[in-house]
Amino acid sequence: MNLLIIRLIIFVVLLWAGLKLYRMYREWKHERDELAGREQRNLDNGQMVRCAYCRVHLPEDEALHQDDQWFCGPNHRDRYLTERPPQA
Ligand SMILES: [Zn+2]
C-alpha cells in the first residue's frame, strides 16, 4: 500500500514536470516563431523606397513621404522641395 502511494506520487510529479516542461517548450517555440515571423515580415513586406533627392534606397517605415515622393530624411525632403525642377 505504501509503495503504491509512493508510485502514485512519483507518477503525479513526473506528469506535472512533463506538463510544465511541455508548456515552457511551447511558450519558447511560440516566442521564437513570433520573432522569426516578425523578421520575415520585415524582409517581405518592408517596402523599399527611394529617396527622390539622393536616390538612396531605404525601408518605407524609415522614410519620409511628401507629395508622392519619398525621402531619406527631412534634410533631403526640404532640399528636394526647394530645388525641385520646374517640370516635376
Ligand atoms: Zn536622400
TrEMBL record:
Record's keyword terms, sorted: Membrane, Transmembrane, Transmembrane helix
InterPro entries per the UniProt record, alphabetical: PP0621-like
Residue ranges crossing the lipid bilayer per the database entry: 6-22
Protein name: MYND finger
Origin species: Modicisalibacter muralis
